[in-house]
Specification:
By secondary structure, the chain is of the alpha/beta class. It is about 40% helix and about 30% strand. The chain has a domain of about 240 residues: FAD/NAD(P)-binding domain (3-Layer(bba) Sandwich). The chain starts with a strand and ends with a helix. Bound molecules: flavin-adenine dinucleotide.
């Protein structure tokens, strides 16, 4: 049985960022994932700008490394489409990319392999996490974690759950970390030969499903990630199957049908849950922390979670280093981590949650604003006011 200072469960964006942030800590780190990489992850594949910002802080030559990574598509704008209203375009000043998660997550794990001493266990599903009664002498470490899978048996002093929306780490504690979580459910499929620009991320706000949106994101090589996300409270008890809704929209929505006409569906439509941040809830305990989707850090407005996963993975690594420096692993000390996640990530997500509720609650108002906002004269007036304010 191997013993580690830290075991990170899950090698997605949260787990890999956490391992990279621990690279100069001198701590013995294990990173365990049930999949063997490259592995797919159901996603829209839009890599938010802040995700690369996190990488730049971890590895100074990120831009060079990322330039050499070919499985990506540069995106220069996002556009919002509403029926019978002129699309609204937002042009990106900073570089933004889409990349299939099969490739992007493998790229991140390769960085961990190249730049850290982490012991990586791939293809090992963890099904049991237990705090042993074995007491360590001295310090504040009350016990050791025992982590078990079919072929794996590890112990560690500190565990970081980066194992996604259905986190086994989160479910292994008496505190119900997943209580009161608001969820969204989304499906996606890959298409070739879609009739839209290869550098624009399209969002469609739908009359038929006001608490959701449809997207078409180019991921390179003439392939597009096409998906539909809805709030689960919209489908609860209403017998809406999101996959069926997706197929219906593709067939029946005139704007989407026009763009997908003649396009080839490349694989099955796949779906997964997105745990949205709605309000502050505990994400740590004695000797443990949760990061990324396991800590329900998906942006409720845009459905982004890769950047928040990486940011929280780094914050968890920083807290872990503090724990070993101070020899303090208590639940009280761990609250510093909750506080940092709240101030650096949660507050913004809380605002977006309220905005999302407003957008989905008042679809007519959104249409009216889009109509007014799309009007050239209103746009010019807005720009003039904005620049005058800035000059002052
Ligand atoms: C349809 C859909 C579209 C989305 N679109 C976007 C988007 O365009 N942009 C964006 O930023 N976000 C998007 N998201 C959200 C994004 O996918 C997540 O927020 C992000 O993947 C979170 O990263 P993570 O590292 O926390 O978890 P994950 O990426 O889920 O990684 C968790 C890892 O843990 C491993 N694991 C799980 N259980 C175990 C176990 N028991 N033992 C060992 N290993 C385990 C898994 O194999 C996995 O590799 C989307 C989500 C969905 C469902």
């Amino acid at each position: 049985m191997s013993h580690y200072d830290i075991a990170i469960i899950g090698a997605g964006p949260a787990g890999t960022a956490c391992a990279l942030a621990l690279r100069e800590s001198g701590l013995r780190v294990a990173l365990v994932d049930k999949s063997t990489f490259p592995r797919d992850k159901t996603c829209g594949d839009a890599i938010p700008g802040p995700a690369l910002k996190v990488l730049r802080k971890l590895l100074p030559d990120t831009d060079e490394i990322f330039d050499q990574f070919t499985e990506k598509q540069r995106v220069q704008s996002s556009s919002v489409h509403l029926r019978n209203i002129k699309p609204i375009y937002v042009n990106w000043v900073t570089k933004a990319y889409n990349s299939p998660r099969l490739d992007f997550d493998n790229f991140l794990l390769d960085l961990v392999k190249k730049y850290t001493e982490t012991n990586i266990y791939e293809g090992e599903k963890i099904y049991k996490v237990e705090q042993s009664s074995h007491h360590k002498s001295g310090g504040f470490k009350p016990s050791t974690f025992v982590i078990e899978g079919k072929n794996i048996h590890l112990t560690c002093d500190l565990i970081i759950g980066c194992d996604g929306a259905n986190s086994i780490v989160s479910r292994s504690f008496s505190v119900d970390f997943q209580e009161n979580i608001k969820n969204s459910f989304a499906v996606r499929a890959y298409y070739a030969g879609v009739n839209c620009a290869a550098n624009d991320n399209r969002f469609y706000l739908l009359d038929e499903l006001p608490k959701g949106y449809f997207w078409i994101f180019p991921v390179g090589k003439n392939v597009y990630n096409v998906g539909l996300g809805v709030l689960t409270n919209q489908i609860k008890g209403k017998k809406i199957d999101v996959k069926d809704a997706f197929h219906d929209i593709v067939k029946q929505n005139p704007d989407i049908r026009a763009v997908l006409q003649g396009a080839e569906l490349l694989d099955k439509v796949k779906g997964f849950r997105l745990p949205l941040w709605s309000r502050r809830q505990p994400i740590s305990g004695a000797q443990m922390m949760l990061a990324g989707d396991a800590a329900y850090l998906v942006d409720p407005l845009q459905g982004h979670g890769i950047d928040k996963a990486m940011q929280s993975g780094v914050l968890a690594a920083e807290q872990a280093i503090s724990c070993f420096e101070k020899g303090n692993f208590s639940a009280t000390f761990m609250r510093d981590y909750d506080e940092k996640v709240y101030t650096q990530i949660g507050k913004e997500l809380g605002r977006n949650f309220r905005l999302m509720q407003w957008v989905s609650g008042y679809p007519r108002m959104v249409k009216l604003l889009a109509r007014i906002g799309g009007n050239e004269r209103v746009k010019q007036l807005g720009q003039r006011l904005f620049y005058r304010k800035k000059k002052k």
